[in-house]
């Protein structure tokens, strides 16, 4: 029986996610309903993606008995309210990253998931790409020996996008870009908390972070460093250095389709989309959708690949980076 998806919000990321669903077998995944704050937006989205039901409010989607799991694709200042709405309605949830604005909000979401006994996962899509699976396998097999250093970068000129610039929209490069580098470090070091973290960077006049360099020190003299920026294009790759070699993810490290292990490159191509995409390699969201389905079939309430503790560590480290750089959101003052 197919996993029946409800789509919350009709923005660019929801479009790409719905296109990605169509690259999976129809007998496994079906988008059955979509909701927006304006009914006409939901109706337009439903026509474009051939979805049978369109709602003009999120509450109507929450009440739909034919929806197994809701994909939340609105902007992150609204994630807390949306997650609580759907989970209180006993819906399983895949919520776009970042899961919320700060640690306090993430804890509230995680508590709600446990209280309502529903599945919840933060949509850190990178973790589910075949490249990421292969990286975890290689590390488990100690293919490059003991990992000593990780370096990654993510920078794209996006200062023309209000959601990267305006504080009330959850602006700032960390929560949209830098978190990909941070989650990669956390994945490679298997969810270990760093012994120390140092962040230095520059902010925009709006009070959000623009370009930041972060250095993390882990136990046993292991290090990580990453740079992120919303104002410039960076190499956008990642490298893991071990005592016996290196693993490199070339450009587009957040949606990778190739892997270089000790100089040998392997390609992992994505399926072609049925409609134009808004984001590079957007059909790669198919992998997180399939992870949700497999978890639901097993009766799990969280994914072992992107667990609740993974989301909590990620936001706690993000809060510390923001504190050091001097970024404060209104949600931090509640």
UniProtKB/TrEMBL annotation:
One of its GO terms (molecular function) is trans-1,2-dihydrobenzene-1,2-diol dehydrogenase activity. Gene3D superfamilies: Dihydrodipicolinate Reductase, domain 2, NAD(P)-binding Rossmann-like Domain. InterPro entries: Gfo/Idh/MocA-like_OxRdtase_N (IPR000683), Gfo/Idh/MocA_domain (IPR050984), GFO_IDH_MocA-like_dom (IPR055170), NAD(P)-bd_dom_sf (IPR036291). Pfam families: GFO_IDH_MocA (PF01408), GFO_IDH_MocA_C3 (PF22725). Keywords: NADP, Oxidoreductase. The keyword Oxidoreductase applies. Residues 134-247 form the GFO/IDH/MocA-like oxidoreductase domain. It catalyses: (1R,2R)-1,2-dihydrobenzene-1,2-diol + NADP(+) = catechol + NADPH + H(+); D-xylose + NADP(+) = D-xylono-1,5-lactone + NADPH + H(+). Residues 4-121 form the Gfo/Idh/MocA-like oxidoreductase N-terminal domain. PANTHER family: OXIDOREDUCTASES, TRANS-1,2-DIHYDROBENZENE-1,2-DIOL DEHYDROGENASE. Belongs to the Gfo/Idh/MocA family. Homodimer. This is Trans-1,2-dihydrobenzene-1,2-diol dehydrogenase. It comes from Poecilia mexicana.
């Amino acid at each position: 029986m197919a996993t029946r998806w409800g789509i919350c919000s009709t923005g660019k990321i929801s479009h790409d996610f719905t296109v990605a669903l169509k690259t999976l077998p129809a007998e496994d995944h079906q988008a059955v309903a979509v909701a927006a704050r304006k009914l006409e937006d939901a109706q337009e989205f439903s026509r474009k993606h051939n979805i049978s039901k369109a709602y003009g409010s999120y509450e109507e989607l929450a009440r739909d008995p034919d929806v197994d799991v809701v994909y939340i694709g609105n902007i992150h200042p609204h994630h807390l309210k949306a997650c609580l709405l759907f989970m209180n309605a006993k819906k399983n949830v895949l919520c776009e990253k970042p899961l919320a604005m700060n640690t306090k909000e993430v804890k509230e979401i995680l508590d709600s998931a446990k209280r309502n006994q529903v599945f919840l996962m933060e949509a850190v899509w990178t973790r589910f790409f075949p490249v990421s699976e292969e990286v975890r396998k290689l590390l488990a097999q100690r293919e490059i020996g003991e990992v000593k250093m990780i370096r990654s970068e993510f920078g794209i000129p996006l200062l023309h996008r209000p959601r990267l610039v305006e504080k009330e929209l959850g602006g700032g490069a960390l929560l949209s870009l830098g978190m990909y580098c941070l989650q990669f470090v956390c994945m490679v070091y298997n969810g270990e908390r760093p012994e120390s973290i140092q962040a230095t960077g520059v902010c925009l006049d709006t009070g959000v972070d623009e370009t930041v360099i972060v250095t993390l020190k882990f136990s046993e003299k292991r290090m990580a460093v990453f740079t992120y920026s919303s104002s410039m294009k960076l190499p956008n790759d990642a490298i893991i250095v071990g005592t016996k070699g290196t693993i490199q993810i070339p450009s587009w490290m957040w949606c990778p389709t190739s892997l270089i292990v000790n100089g040998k490159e392997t390609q992992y191509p994505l399926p072609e989309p049925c409609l134009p995409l808004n984001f590079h390699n957007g059909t790669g969201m198919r992998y997180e959708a399939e992870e949700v389905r497999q978890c639901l079939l097993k009766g799990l309430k969280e994914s072992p690949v992107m667990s609740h503790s993974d989301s909590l560590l990620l936001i706690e480290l993000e809060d510390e980076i923001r504190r050091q750089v001097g970024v404060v959101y209104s949600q931090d003052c509640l």
